[in-house]
NUDIX domain-containing protein
Amino acid sequence: MDHSDTAPAGGIISVSAVVLTRPDGAVATVRKAGTDRFMLPGGKWEAGESPRACAAREIDEELGVAIAPDRLTPLGRFDTATANEPGFSLVSEVFAAEVDGGQQHRAEIAELRWVAAAEMAHIATLPEDACAPWAPLLVRVARDCLT
């Protein structure tokens, strides 16, 4: 499915995001350069790219995680506020994968933070409109998929 037609021109940013989980249950969150919110790794769809292919490309670019798109487990589609683009809405196709935890941040990622399961449970209780330093999508996914 190609969703590249839902570009920012309509006030909607379409992305794929991935819940990367280590064997101990911790979830990878990233902070992009020039921002102050931690979010799930991922990014915007390229023209003609499927959400699943985008997710695989983005986690490879951002964290060096090479996973075939068909090995990503779909978690759902989420409509939330954006973390860093005021006035836009975010439409996210979210996937899950397990990793060993030896990843390093790359590309535009300034920081990689592993969040323990207990802290993810706390993040799930936060209101999406006042959840800094976390992104609203992270709060929604924690609430709907991780608790």
In short: The mean pLDDT is 92. Helices lie at 51-63, 117-123, 136-145. The longest helix spans residues 51-63. The radius of gyration is 14 Å.
